[in-house]
Amino acid sequence: MRDYFVYTTTTDPRASVMLAELTQEYDARYGNLFSPGGAAEEMRRYPPETFAPPHGNFLLLLRQGQAIAGGAFKRLDEHTAEFKRIWTHSQFRRQGLAGLVLQELEAQCQRQGYRQIYLTTGCRQPEAVGLYLRHGYQAQFDPEGDLEALRTLPFTKAVPRQDIMSEITEVGEIAFSHPHPLPRQANEPAAAETGGSNRYAGLRIIPARYPARIAGSVLAVLLLAAIISSVATNPRWGWAVFAEWFLAAPVLEGLGRTLLLTAIGTVLGSVLGTVLALARVSRSPLLASLSWSYIWLFRSIPLIVMLLILNN
């Protein structure tokens, strides 16, 4: 599978699918939460030159000529680029493409002289939050807080220093096979020119030794063996009594009731959780507030206290 990056502009016809799907997805998730005009107003907010060199850039990841992922950045200040329009086609998700786009945009930010990255995502895109956290972005908010109240979730990251080309890519292509290599420096000699792996033929590789790790492993094995021996041979465990009652009628009856209550609790919990989740993301302030209050109450009360209340 041969994919390739293209640095282009937002007016490129190949970007139309990306921009249309972004607009549709934003509308489905947020409606007019951020602006009366919905996602279309946000997509028209920046003119094409905003995402063009020397201060910005617009990236598409193509597969057989079709845009399957992409992203852009613009100047926020002299040293900071702001990422926008990070997107993966709905038919090609869960392939790590968004991560590739982030890495390439970070590399391009370095080429264009930026030192810091800033980006935001919405409160109803948990997959985007997870993506940025996995790739080393620092959340400028409490991920455990009320994200719906925050609405906009900011992240920052220092531009990774990589061994990449220094010139600015304006409109061009970078081809790669997964995982894609970074371009070689123009003045960097190829392996054949430097003798390749023959440079290291005279070196002897000595495996690293970890005596503390070995000692800890031996100690753990001995401790585990002692526990198993105690459980198997100590008469105080009363294995004869255990065997006598293991299949007794009262035990089996209690087991059946436990499994039944577990199944009922699972079903009721799933139904209640779904209702609360739908209410939580509802545009109705009343439903969202009631759901938030219920969740806050039961998350705040310790389980042992809840059991005491219910049993009395």
TrEMBL record:
It holds the Pfam family Acetyltransf_1. Its main location: membrane. InterPro entries: Acyl_CoA_acyltransferase (IPR016181), Bact_Acetyltransf (IPR050832), GNAT_dom (IPR000182), MetI-like (IPR000515), MetI-like_sf (IPR035906). One of its GO terms (cellular component) is membrane. It is found in: Membrane. Gene3D superfamilies: 3.40.630.30, MetI-like. It is a multi-pass membrane protein. Residues 255-312 form the ABC transmembrane type-1 domain. GO terms for molecular function: acyltransferase activity, transferring groups other than amino-acyl groups. The chain crosses the membrane at residues 214-231, 259-279, 291-310. Residues 17-160 form the N-acetyltransferase domain. The keyword ATP-binding does not apply. The keyword Transmembrane applies. GO terms for biological process: transmembrane transport. Keywords: Acyltransferase, Membrane, Transferase, Transmembrane, Transmembrane helix. This is N-acetyltransferase domain-containing protein. It comes from Anopheles coluzzii (African malaria mosquito). The lineage of its organism: Eukaryota, Metazoa, Ecdysozoa, Arthropoda, Hexapoda.
